Amino acid sequence: MYRLLDHRLGNVARMPLLGLAILLLTLTPVPAQETRPPNVVVIMADDLGYGDLSCYGATSLSTPHIDQLADEGIRFTSGYCSASTCTPTRYSLLTGAYAFRTPGTGIAPPNSPAIIQPGTKTIASILKSAGYRTAVIGKWHLGLGGPDGPDWNGLLKPGPLEIGFDECYLLPTTNDRVPQVYVSDHRVENLDPNDPLWVGNKKPSPDHPTGITHRESLKMDWSHGHNATIHNGISRIGFYTGGHAARFRDEDLADKWVEKSKAFIAENRDRPFFLFFSSHDIHVPRMPHERFQGATSLGFRGDAIIQLDWCVGQLMESLEENDLAENTLVVFCSDNGPVLDDGYKDGAVEKIGDHRAAGPFSGGKYSVYEGGTRTPFITRWKGTIKPGVSDNLVATIDLAHSCSKLAGQELPDGACPDSINVLDALLGKVGAKGRDHLVQQDNGTRGTFGLRSGKWKLQRHKRKSARNVVVERQLANTAVPEHQLFDLEADPAEKRNVIEQHPEVAKRMIKQLDDIIAAKQTR
Ligand code: NG6
Ligand code: CA
Question: Do residues 92 and 99 make contact, with C-beta atoms less than 8 angstroms apart?
């Protein structure tokens, strides 16, 4: 009823009396479902692997809230993000375009300008034009500001608000990149103008303490990179000074995302909304709240998974409290596969035990092996989705097109060029098909790609080696031929290259990959 009523009342002021009378006569009850499309909540985890949840086979820890989501919805076994690092996956989630088509979409540095240009059609802008209230809460990592980068002490635009979000509450980059402040809409929150924030990539003064000069003072040591400015006892990527009143404690991030999300859900309970809940968990530095520290035997990496699971439980509770669980499509996904040591000595490697973060797959973050992009993927819509497990191929890049359909919107010409409408598969409709194929990329290394099509997986490497194979549970560079072909049904770990046995399949897929890369769009 909401949209129609709102639209009709919007015209009242401009109507003569007779028109008003006719309007009132026609204001007969309209079934709520007809005019109010469901809310969409996308929960994106950071660096969470296929095997990191108990509903995906983990036995070293238990994730009851995410497991419940899977029990009440669909757990996908071929759910993917489109890249094995953060920025390109997020770029594609929002724009529905493969990131490899646009240079400059790799991992964004602290002072990155906005990567998605104002006016670009995104999942948020499309849902907004369908009458949704739209918000992103949590990690952004898609740059802020014009070509000169973010004006940390002024207006941080363009950013999410210029590409379809009504509101945002952000960790602007990643938790391991400076600065550790919240961005609320266009500004750093709680910034004291007398203590301006400076962010740069060079040491601001010879005596500026860093992870190198003050290593013994750190509460978590670094292993590679991450040795510049120290905040909260943790040294980071990049340098910054000032903005002290605005700085957060890493331990409080999850609570903050939940608090802001609950408020957003409650405020918008009477209208359709889109919430992109963008968790920083389980990205480094893994520093969960004190109440989760020690929750698992896996160290802070495992404890951060428990914190993420708690967040999901809180969001689901909030939907129940507001009586919205039956009117909300929830999508749970990850932005790339797992990594153990990603720059800090947090015990992830030493305490891994039997835990297989990528499940049965090889590779992980940074890799085009399946472990890099095949990740947990769950949809739930109470009362509409029939619970189950699906082998349909679906990907985060498809959410833009699929959710626009859900909201009754046609995609504008040229928008979301690689986003396929897989709504029926996401909703578990009988006979629904997912994607036919998916291109998997790493951070954007020119020429390195995976192509999944049916049971087949083609890998293309233009470099002679790739950081792809798990060696003693850590990613390592190994020599690779230019093309490899794997039969994922027989060999999910991509250990037996069968390109010589299936030259016709390889030929077809090499051409298909070349054609997709050369094309402007695939939908
Ligand atoms: C890498 C960082 C890594 C992580 C990654 C981005 C080093 C040595 N490594 O450059 O720690 O920050 O970028 O991760 O600095 S992502 O999930 O946001 O893509
Ligand atoms: Ca990530």
Answer: yes
b/e per residue 422-446 (b: at least 16 CB within 10 A): bbbbbbbeeeeebbebbbbbbbbbe
**Is the pTM here over 0.85, yes or no?**
yes
Atom 5 of ligand 1, residue of closest alpha carbon: 107
Domains of the chain: 40-435 (3.40.720.10), 439-518 (3.30.1120.10)
Answer yes or no: are the C-beta atoms of 390 and 428 closer than 8 Å: yes
Q: How far is the CA of 352 from the centre of ligand 2 (A)?
A: 19
Residue 230: predicted pLDDT: 98
pLDDT below 50 — which residues of the chain? 1-33, 471-472
Tens-digit pLDDT profile for residues 433-468: 999 999 999 999 778 999 999 999 999 998 776 665
Q: Which of 44, 81, 85, 178 to mutate to test the pocket of ligand 1 (most atoms within 8 A of CB)?
A: 85
- Given this model, what pLDDT does residue 50 score? 98
Ligand 1 atom nearest 139 alpha carbon? 18
What are the structure tokens assigned to 158, written together? 């363009």
Task: Write the single-letter amino acid at 77.
Answer: T
User: CA-to-CA distance for 159 and 294, rounded, in angstroms?
Assistant: 37
255-266 as b/e, with b when 16 or more CB fall inside 10 Å?
bbbbebbbebbe
pLDDT value for 447: 86
pLDDT at 8: 34
pLDDT value at residue 126: 98
Contact between 297 and 60 (Cβ < 8 Å): yes
Dist. CA 130 → ligand 1 center (Å): 36
Report which DSSP code applies to 71.
H
Substitution site in 46, 139, 174 for ligand 1 pocket (most atoms within 8 Å of beta carbon): 174
Rounded distance, CA 505 to CA 456, Å?
8
